[in-house]
Amino acid sequence: MATALTVSVGQHTDKGRKPENQDCHGIRIPQDGLLTMKGIAVAMADGISSSEVSHVASETAVKSLLDDYYCTSEVWSVRSAVERVLTATNSWLYSQSRHGLGQYDKDKGYVCTLSALVLKHHTAHVFHVGDTRIYRLNANGLEQLTNDHRVWVTREQSYLSRALGVEPYCHVDYHALRLQPDDLFIISSDGLYEFISTEQLIEIVQSHPEDLDTAARTLINLALVAGSDDNLSIQLVRIDHLPHATSTIRQRLENLPIPPRLRARTVFDGYTIMRELHASSRSYVYLAQDNESQKTVVLKVPTIAVSSDMAHLERFQQEEWIARRINSAYVLKADLAERPRNSLYTVFEYIEGQTLAQWAIDNPKPDITTVRQIIEQIARGLHAFHRMEMLHQDLRPENIMIDRTGTVRIMDFGS
């Protein structure tokens, strides 16, 4: 018998009568611990028709949500985690628009709608901006869960009042609702819902309970026959089984204890502490071995002194999230072990080498070629931050590592 959250899924998209499909949709159903900690994420984005690059916007919005949400700290709430991801995505899209045709005309920029669900434990978390819609169908009927961010000028003419990529900051609607067995969520682009009736939607979905993909294709074909002149996309997600009540899990994560100072050879949360690498008033850094994978890693643990400093603890967790998001040979990587944590700490790859500060002491008169190579690698690492619309804000020799091969990595970016 299933004990975890399980769903059935059907989805389909079609460019319709348009030359290109500017819609994008996706779903991620993780396994085991990640399913419990993060849940199931579903997303759909619709790029604006007036822009030749809006398909990039919709693909970026969906992919970044489905990838980056699962890189966020387990301590953050679903709302906080998703909103941080969407804020970063909106900043990137807006920046791209500002460097292209979108700087003169917002209708030509990297602009799209986004409607998303995160299904976790017994709760559906709804995120929405634009005019893509989310519905819920159950024994009580069909309910529209989102409001269209659209302004009507005339009966035939309207425009989006809110979307990703239009402004430096985008407010995303959010609300949460309790899940029930057999709840069926429907996410639809306007190219579909404007051309089929509520009765047709309910009838088609209910007539294909065992094949939601067929239901999705049937609805799109029905909208095309009815004259849809836009891209068409639909996702159907039915709740098949809910897990046992786990109301204490969120509370446990929010109240993860800060461990005491650890000693060598201590077994801690699946790691064996090898030695202490660094100690300060705000954190301890340890060299450790993952007892499951046998990898050598670095654990960073906050001190008891900062236990009441919530702003610092947020930045502490953010450092690991950033390390998971940035994929660069010149930036420190987070370790991706997915087992649940029982204390507050972060895990990073181990780099065998020295800081740039120590390297400068050991090499007081370096040759110009070596200096140039170091600077070039630092620049590449910073460029990886800037591509994600992030600034390091604490770049100094002590926060740059050089390994034994001469490769430079930027670290310590919680600020």
Automatic annotation (TrEMBL):
Residues 1-23 are annotated as: Disordered. Residues 8-239 form the PPM-type phosphatase domain. InterPro entries: Kinase-like_dom_sf, PPM-type-like_dom_sf, PPM-type_phosphatase-like_dom, Prot_kinase_dom, Tyr_kinase_AS. Residues 1-11 have a biased composition (Polar residues). Residues 271-415 form the Protein kinase domain. Keywords: Kinase, Serine/threonine-protein kinase, Transferase. SUPFAM superfamilies: PP2C-like (SSF81606), Protein kinase-like (PK-like) (SSF56112). Pfam families: Pkinase, PP2C_2. Transmembrane segments: none annotated. Residues 12-23 have a biased composition (Basic and acidic residues). GO terms for molecular function: ATP binding; protein serine/threonine kinase activity. PANTHER family: OVARIAN-SPECIFIC SERINE/THREONINE-PROTEIN KINASE LOK-RELATED, SERINE_THREONINE-PROTEIN KINASE CHK2. This is Serine/threonine protein kinase. It comes from Elysia marginata.
